[in-house]
Write a structure and sequence with these properties.
The structure is a single chain. The mean pLDDT is 89. The longest helix is centred in the C-terminal third of the chain and has 15 residues, at 81-95. 22% of the residues are buried. By secondary structure, the protein is mostly helical. The protein starts with 12 loop residues before the first helix and ends with a helix. The protein has helices spanning 13-23, 28-41, 47-57, 61-69, 81-95. 62% of the residues lie in helices and 0% in strands.
């Protein structure tokens, strides 16, 4: 998979920008983790959840990856509902 499988045609500008950022993180692993999650969830997230995902998108790849894989604890200010959804989505993809 080389990138998003989801069209951004029906998304508002904020969601389109976040979808793009999710697929262009800098490391391929995080592109796949964030991008696949964004493909699946971006249209159903509330504005508040979009804000949380934007905050996560600002976290450097190595740090976010460590939180997602459990090799480092998640700081309380990032252990939010969207982070947990992203982590669980990633964990379910590992099983498939």
């Amino acid at each position: 998979m080389t990138g998003t499988a989801r069209s951004s045609a029906n998304l508002d500008e904020r969601r389109r920008r976040l979808l793009y950022r999710s697929w262009h993180r800098g490391t391929r692993e995080m592109d796949l983790i964030m991008g696949r999650f964004a493909d699946a969830a971006i249209s159903e997230l509330t504005d508040a959840e979009i804000g949380e995902l934007e905050r996560l998108a600002d976290v450097p790849d190595p740090e976010l990856y460590a939180w997602l894989t459990g090799s480092r604890p998640v700081p309380d200010n990032y252990d939010l509902a969207v982070f947990r959804r992203l982590r669980d989505f990633h964990a379910l993809r590992q099983i498939e």
